[in-house]
Specification:
The chain is of the alpha/beta class. The chain is built from ten helices and ten strands. It has a six-stranded mixed beta sheet, with helices on both faces.
């Protein structure tokens, strides 16, 4: 893939002001008597970076997105967006914060009864009072950035899955948000569409000076564009570092994930009773 190179920030130039999202000692479970999904979680997402959150299914990756977006509230700890605690915001403050967050949902989630143009125009119509002339220009600019200006009058049913994902990306950046979140942006894409989407994520992040947070399983494409990667395991940070550092890691958890090994720290069998207890036989 011929993607842009990661735009890594020199650690010596980073400061607290560079942190767009900070997760501090967060504990979360869906109910007080249920297992903890996240435990003592600490993460930072810095301005100008593409940061990936990876890990097995059900490890809590999408939960992190929902905590940042305010759909969930942590039982303890803080989720800070631009220095403000999401969990303590009023509904008005939370809506204002969400206007500064772009979200690309898994499989795009376009409005099926709206045209490509109107899908991208939707957040602009909802959150601004722009004239129709200016709104049209902005929508066409966003569509042009993802290579789909010519598809503006088509309906979602008339475009491919890869094109739909690009329309959804144009919609996610319609308000030029400082934070863009992607929930499995590569899921279900053919190799060409996958490469195009990955390149767009990197290029648009650079152009906007934004922070991009990717929840994904796709190692190759993610490592090609990410500045930093967190691996989640058992509700904790199992490993973290740059793609280069993690590629050279000998950590068993990292190696199992990168090598797609069926057995390792993440077991094949879900914990349960012994064979003897279940079947009355000696294991």
């Amino acid at each position: 893939m011929n993607s842009s190179q990661p735009n890594s920030l020199d650690a010596s130039t980073q400061s607290a002001g560079d942190v767009v999202v900070s997760i501090k000692d967060v504990n979360f479970s869906y109910a007080p008597d249920e297992r903890q999904i996240l435990s003592g979680l600490n993460m930072e997402f810095r301005r100008g970076q593409v940061v990936a959150v990876m890990g097995g299914s059900g490890c809590g990756k999408t939960t992190i997105l929902r905590l940042i977006g305010g759909q969930f509230t942590a039982q303890s700890g803080q989720v800070l967006f631009e220095g403000q605690d999401i969990g303590k915001m009023s509904s008005v403050e939370l809506m204002a914060a969400r206007r500064r967050m772009g979200m690309l949902f898994q499989f795009g989630a376009l409005f099926t009864d709206l045209s490509v143009f109107e899908n991208v125009a939707f957040p602009l119509r909802e959150h601004t009072d722009l004239s129709e002339e200016l709104l049209r220009s902005l929508v066409l600019m966003k569509l042009n950035a993802v290579g789909l200006r010519g598809a503006r009058d088509l309906m979602p049913s008339q475009i491919s899955g890869g094109m739909a994902r690009r329309v959804a990306l144009a919609r996610a950046i319609a308000l030029d948000p400082p934070l863009i979140m992607y929930d499995e942006p590569f899921a279900g894409l053919d190799p060409i569409s996958l490469g195009i989407t990955a390149r767009l994520i990197r290029d648009l992040n650079n152009a906007l000076g934004a922070t991009s947070l990717l929840v994904t399983h796709d190692v190759e494409e993610t490592f090609a564009i990410a500045d930093y990667v967190y691996f989640i395991a058992n509700g904790h940070i199992g490993a973290e570092g740059t793609p280069e550092e993690l590629s050279c890691s000998t950590d068993p958890f990292v190696r199992q994930f990168l090598d797609a090994a069926p057995d390792g720290p993440v077991p094949f069998h879900y914990p349960g009773q012994s064979l003897e207890e279940d079947f009355g036989v000696r294991a």
